[in-house]
Design goal:
Structural class: alpha+beta
Number of strands: 33
Keywords: Signal
Largest sheet: 9 strands, antiparallel
Pfam families: Glyco_hydro_92, Glyco_hydro_92N
Bound molecules: 2-acetamido-2-deoxy-beta-D-glucopyranose
InterPro entries: 6-hairpin_glycosidase_sf, GH-type_carb-bd, GH92_a_mannosidase_put, GH92_N, Glyco_hydro_92, PNGase
GO cellular component, one term: cytosol
Protein name: Alpha-1,2-mannosidase
CATH architecture of the domain at 42-310: Distorted Sandwich
Radius of gyration: 27 Å
Distance between the termini: 46 Å
């Protein structure tokens, strides 16, 4: 149990004694545990940040440090000021770490330890503490380190104890992945201020970025200053520049930095270090810090950070209805993780001049289109609006929307051009203020029409085949651009859905011909469906026929075992590399279920609702589905399209809390900038979205009552469970009322949240007929086109099961 967990169990013991333990109306803030997902590959950032803030301070450990800190290592090598959260790629950022030492043994500068590899110090087990805006840890060299942040500045309080104190704090020109090219550092002998810069690589993309910092200290008199190179330090010179030497690379990169040594601090033993960061210049790094935290006031800065987080979280309130503190912790922590990235770098973008907001760390949209941006739209539409404006501005200046972006660089595209989905989702959900939708529309059309020279980092490949053959051939002939010629199946279904989303925007903007055209193209997933394909597992027929399969240019079929790249067969063979296969990070089993805009046709294609439901259930039960990768999220709710909304609810409870819990290993995969968090929290609120559509699937919230206040209209929408029980026996909706009137649709649209109101769900122990009729199902392409709307086969099929 983490320290935080311990704290919560004490808190819950206290609460249990009070009479209102049943009704948590206290701020969700107290339930957030930032340590969830900090072991076994969650890569969650556990440190101090503001919502979507650029400064993210934490202790960096020596391995599995994608999020800076993790419990996979017990050695801390520095405290750095910027991070990404939950990444599946390499470690991002972590530039210019500080490292404090109580003194240099024998009072000899050279007896302090300078390189990362030598100075690493174990932390005191159990000393770690984290809550939104705050992180603390004690090192096994008697130093306690606490940190908090403002938007562009990290603030550290180092407390020293023991004898012969003459603390030395160094700042190192490195980053977590040792990617520094050129670098430069200087220390001011009077003030102890250290400034510097460096050129670094992004962790899952191309190019380089320059970053600058400015560190100031308060709390003790300056004794001396200097620089270090390798494990040698001196008081002269006061600055040093490095260029790559071609020999010392990777983990052997030359350690270079500066240091400031102090006389013993006053009786409290504290030295405050304030580090401003900027992508523009060291001057701006210094002025950011001076403006945001003029007086080195740690407690005041922390209080401001806590206040911002409480306000962010307070748009939701729950009546827990007797649900355990653990479940509430899962929920609030998940919401919190959904508000760490993308990061607001407005005013910090050296690449172009613009009055638009600039956000970065879209890491990656392939992950975040599925529920992160929907969570942000719901809870913080103002931030989502700024993000959409920044995406459109990236298109304006880079020529394409990103599919992944970090540290001012283009990141790798994993499948489709999925920013199209984010834009459509926002377009449909009243994300309008200051958004230039005409340019937004050009951006998505560019994805759909113009193949870029390098489609490994933006746009789509194979567009000529897409337009002429209506699928991505496995052996595509594409002389128009370069990119990895793999993933023909998953790219086909993602491009199809991207086109569906473009059609929605076209419709809204009145581009009727485009609407028709992209609607037509959105049906292209059907062209990869091989209707006689069977699937064997361990030599036995699974009994389901018809799967997506590879298709060649000449129209003949290839073969990829439908289970290949599922957890049951060569799970890790479909990553982004030249040896990749025809699906990405998943199997044909999985991608055969991916037609989010055309579910009516898909259900029909797979044999009608009853067979569809059996197949979907088999997919979940057999172990073919991995919920730790984002494509799994929607799979929990597809039962809604087969008239079985109760099974979506059952499946949600199957995964939460068994796979999403309060332990430090409590998320099933990389959090990917909050993706796992957004899945858990939206699922627990009972309103998981079909991303890119104005559709939320209704399932009973995991609490007696959930209310969400909309930031655009100030209205509150409440979902109430009647017959709620905290043991989750009554998880099936029997009937529903929206604002007092019977409501039979198994889905909601966003105007419920804009207008406010009450949705009352009456629960029972068994599935009911609520939300099962064809007219109650979420909309789907074919229901407008007519192939299943009102189709009698459906009713018969459902009645027969
Ligand atoms: C919890 O709140 C409900 C109404 O919201 C109220 O009826 C009930 O008495 C409260 N329970 C406790 C233990 O305070
Ligand atoms: C602190 O370091 C010492 C020496 O390396 C080691 O023996 C001790 O176990 C460490 N203590 C903790 C709490 O890690
Ligand atoms: C840290 O403490 C926890 C709980 O007391 C224990 O389970 C764990 O093994 C300890 N870790 C180390 C590295 O000593
Ligand atoms: C921090 O940035 C957010 C936007 O991301 C902004 O709303 C807020 O006002 C900023 N805080 C300060 C103190 O400037
Ligand atoms: C590094 O500095 C050298 C000059 O010292 C310059 O020629 C080179 O372009 C710089 N490289 C980068 C990546 O900034
Ligand atoms: C870094 O700082 C050095 C020294 O001030 C300066 O010469 C260099 O141009 C800076 N590099 C960047 C990328 O700003
Ligand atoms: C740097 O500052 C220290 C402390 O004030 C002083 O002892 C030392 O002489 C100064 N060094 C230089 C080069 O000015
Ligand atoms: C194209 O992308 C690849 C990575 O897939 C990168 O190595 C290469 O530098 C890029 N080329 C250009 C011209 O941007
Ligand atoms: C179609 O193309 C595939 C892949 O190149 C090849 O194996 C197959 O023989 C071709 N089929 C026909 C009928 O030409
Ligand atoms: C699948 O995994 C097996 C066992 O690890 C390995 O021998 C085989 O080469 C893999 N196949 C592919 C196509 O990656
Ligand atoms: C918590 O979640 C993790 C990750 O999904 C899982 O491996 C573990 O079994 C879960 N723990 C419990 C007690 O359910
Ligand atoms: C849409 O958002 C704006 C603020 O951006 C708000 O004024 C308006 O009322 C919202 N529209 C609806 C239909 O709620």
């Amino acid at each position: 149990m983490s320290f935080r967990g311990l704290f919560l169990s004490v808190l819950s013991a206290l609460l249990a004694q009070s009479t209102c333990a049943q009704n948590s109306s206290s701020s969700g803030y107290n339930f957030v545990d930032p340590f969830i997902g900090t072991k076994n590959g969650g890569h969650v950032f556990a440190g101090a940040t503001l919502p979507f803030g650029m400064a993210k301070a934490v202790a960096d450990v020596t391995n599995e440090n994608q999020g800076g800190f993790s419990f996979d290592s017990s050695t801390v090598s520095g405290f750095s000021h910027m991070h990404d959260s939950g990444t599946g790629g390499g470690a991002s950022l972590g530039n210019f770490p500080l490292f404090p030492q109580p003194n240099c043994p024998g009072d000899q500068i050279d007896n302090c330890k300078f390189p990362k590899a030598l100075r690493g110090t174990t932390f005191v087990n159990g000393s770690q503490e984290a809550r939104p805006g705050y992180f603390a840890i004690s090192l096994n060299n008697s130093i306690k380190a606490e940190m908090t942040v403002s938007n562009h500045t990290a603030l550290y309080r180092f407390t020293f104890s023991g004898d012969n104190l003459s603390p030395l704090i160094l700042a190192d020109l490195t980053d977590l992945s040792n990617s520094r090219g050129n670098g430069s550092v200087a220390v001011d002998n009077d003030s102890g201020r250290i400034i510097g810069n460096g050129t670094f690589n992004p962790s899952f993309g191309i190019g380089t970025y320059d970053l600058h910092f400015c560190a100031d200290f308060s709390g003790a008199k300056i004794r001396d200053t200097g620089v270090f190179v390798n494990n040698r330090a001196g008081t002269e010179p006061k600055s040093v520049n490095v260029v790559p030497d071609g020999v010392n690379t990777g983990t052997d990169i030359l350690p270079v930095g500066a240091w400031t040594q102090f006389n013993a601090p006053d009786s409290k033993g504290e030295i405050i270090a304030r580090v401003g960061v900027s992508f523009i210049s060291t001057d701006q790094a210094c002025s950011n810090a001076e403006k945001e935290i003029p007086d080195f006031d740690f407690d005041g800065t922390l209080a401001a950070a806590e206040k911002v987080w409480k306000e962010k979280l307070d748009v939701i309130s729950i009546n827990a209805g007797g649900v355990s503190d653990d479940i509430q912790t899962v929920f609030w922590s998940a919401i919190y993780r959904g508000m760490i990235s993308p990061q607001d770098y407005t005013g910090e973008n050296p690449l172009w001049e613009s009055d638009e907001p600039y956000y970065d760390s879209y890491y990656c949209i392939w992950d975040s289109f599925r529920s992160i941006h929907q969570l942000i739209t719901l809870l913080d539409p103002e931030s989502q609006t700024r993000m959409v404006r920044s995406l459109i501005d990236i298109y304006r200046h880079e020529g394409k929307l990103p599919d992944c972006r970090m540290s001012l660089c283009k990141g790798f595209t994993q499948g489709g051009s999925n920013a199209d989905i984010v834009l459509a989702d926002s377009y449909l959900k009243n994300i309008t203020e200051g958004v230039d939708w005409a340019t937004g529309y050009k951006a998505v059309i560019s994805d759909a029409e113009d193949e870029p020279p390098n489609w490994s980092v933006e746009g789509r490949g194979g567009l000529t085949s897409w337009k002429n053959l209506h699928y991505i051939p496995t052996d595509d002939y594409d002389p128009f651009g370069a990119g990895p010629f793999t993933r023909s199946i998953s790219r086909t279904v993602e491009y199809a859905y991207d086109d569906f989303c473009i059609a929605e925007i076209a419709k809204g903007l009145g581009h009727t011909a485009d609407y028709e055209k992209y609607t037509q193209r959105s049906k292209n997933w059907r062209n990869m469906f091989k209707k006689d394909q069977t699937s064997l597992l361990s030599g036995k027929d699974t009994g389901f026929t018809g799967f997506l399969q590879p298709k060649f240019l000449n129209g003949t079929w290839g073969f990829q075992d439908p289970a290949f790249c599922s957890p049951l067969l060569n799970f890790t063979s479909c990553f982004l590399n030249p040896e990749g296969h025809e699906t990405y990070e998943g199997s044909c089993w999985l991608y055969t279920f991916f037609a989010p805009g055309d579910m009516g046709e898909l259900v029909t294609t797979l044999g009608g609702p009853s067979t569809f439901t059996k197949r979907l259930q088999y997919f979940h039960d057999s172990g073919l589905l991995y919920i730790g990768d984002e494509q799994g999220f929607l799979m929990v709710f597809l039962y809604h399209y087969a008239g079985r909304p109760g099974l979506s609810s059952k499946q949600a409870h199957f995964y939460i809390p068994s796979q999403f819990n309060t332990s430090i290993t409590g998320i099933p995969g990389n959090d990917d900038s909050g993706a796992m968090g957004s899945f858990a929290s939206l699922t627990m609120m009972g309103i998981f979205p079909n991303p890119g559509q104005d559709v939320y699937f209704i399932t009973p919230p995991f609490f007696k009552e959930v209310s969400i206040r909309n930031g655009q209209t100030g209205k509150t929408a409440t979902i109430k469970n009647i017959n709620f029980d905290a043991a989750y026996e009554n998880i099936y909706i029997q009937s529903a009322k929206l604002n007092g009137k019977p409501y039979t649709k198994n889905w909601l649209s966003h105007d419920f949240f804009l207008s406010g109101g009450t949705l009352e769900l009456t629960l029972g122990k068994n599935e009911s007929s609520w939300g099962t009729k064809v007219q109650d199902l979420p909309p789907s392409l074919s229901s407008y086109g007519g192939s299943y709307g009102g189709d009698k086969r459906w009713m018969v099929d459902y009645a027969m099961q």
